[in-house]
Design brief:
The chain has about 290 residues and is α/β, with parallel strands linked by helices. It contains eleven helices and ten strands. The structure holds adenosine-5'-diphosphate and magnesium ion (MG).
Length: about 290
């Protein structure tokens, strides 16, 4: 009998925890001057749910994402991730174990793709850290993940410049899916896209979450999208946590004056997003 337990289906299970996370940047040239980009951040992310992170530009959202991904080192505090053996400090995890569980999609879908590589190479690249794959196997695997994001054979051999913005962001998502991660950090993944394309990408992200049981940390400027998409929301200001709670509660009945101010100033007052499944298929055709 196997003693290895399957991941719990408990939807209240915390898969990522951030405790007292701080990041201090030393300012170049300035004598000993420092800048607190993140102060004592605490949060927990639940399996299969979406935590939205909102806040004005410079509030520390991307810094938080980079600390989770170990792209930067925290000045204090820690990030822990649920592994088979329980919660583990990411500082102690080899990058290959971390990236198997957590992947990231960036804001600019073009800048994050190597312009000299064909799409199959880009999408299958993360797999090469884990498996020895032939060229043919890489193409097959890339095609599988392209299908998951509504793309196909046509895009497999293309270069990034041949694709539309929405297709490029789909490629970024396909590459993020290639290690079968449990958590995706989406850092303003819609900001560079037209509104109609944004709706298609949101649909896609929702389908993927439902089908693959993904957990999302979704950094966004758009309150309408957050309301539609997220379960919980974290409001940040100048590196501080202002408020954290269920979307309905925080957006409809914010407890902090800053949140009310932010809601008033952010784009995307409530509106009906054209969220329709068939749009994805149209998009997938090219
Ligand atoms: N390497 C760095 N050195 C100094 N300051 C930085 C560095 N990276 C980010 N910052 C500063 O930290 C703050 C938070 O940045 P960031 O996390 O990118 O904000 P957001 O994603 O919310 O717009 C900003 O004021 C930014 O200028
Ligand atoms: Mg940012």
């Amino acid at each position: 009998m196997s003693l290895v337990s399957m991941p719990s289906a408990d939807t209240n299970e915390v898969v990522l925890r951030v405790e007292n996370l701080c990041k201090v940047f030393r300012l170049p040239g300035a004598r000993g001057q420092v800048f607190n980009a993140l102060n004592q951040l605490n949060l927990a992310v639940t399996r299969g749910r979406t935590l939205a992170v909102v806040g004005e530009s410079g509030s520390g959202k991307s810094t938080m994402a980079q600390l989770i991904m170990k792209l930067q080192r925290p000045s204090a505090g820690r990030v822990s991730l649920r592994m088979d053996s329980g919660m583990r400090d990411v500082a102690d995890l080899p990058a290959r174990d971390l990236y198997r569980k957590v992947q990231m999609v960036f804001q600019d879908p073009y800048a994050s793709l190597n312009p000299r590589q064909r799409i199959w190479r880009i999408v299958s690249a993360p797999l090469c850290n884990y498996e020895n794959l032939s060229r043919d196997e890489r193409r097959q695997r890339a095609l599988h993940y392209l299908h998951q994001v509504g793309l196909g054979e046509t895009q497999l051999h293309a270069f990034p410049y041949m694709l539309s913005g929405g297709q490029r962001q789909r490629v970024n998502i396909a590459r993020a899916l290639a290690t079968n991660p449990e958590i995706l950090i989406l850092d303003e993944p819609l900001s560079a896209l037209d509104v109609s394309v944004q709706a298609q990408i949101i649909n896609l992200l929702q389908d993927l979450q439902r089908d693959l049981g993904l957990t999302y940390i979704f950094i966004s400027h758009d309150i309408a999208v957050v309301r539609h998409f997220a379960d919980q929301v974290l409001v940040m200001k100048s590196g501080d946590m202002v408020e954290w709670g269920d979307v309905d509660q925080v957006l409809e009945n914010p407890s902090q004056a800053y949140t009310r101010q932010l809601l008033g100033s952010m784009p995307g007052r409530p509106r009906d997003l054209p969220v329709r499944k068939e749009l994805i298929n149209v998009m997938a055709g090219g």
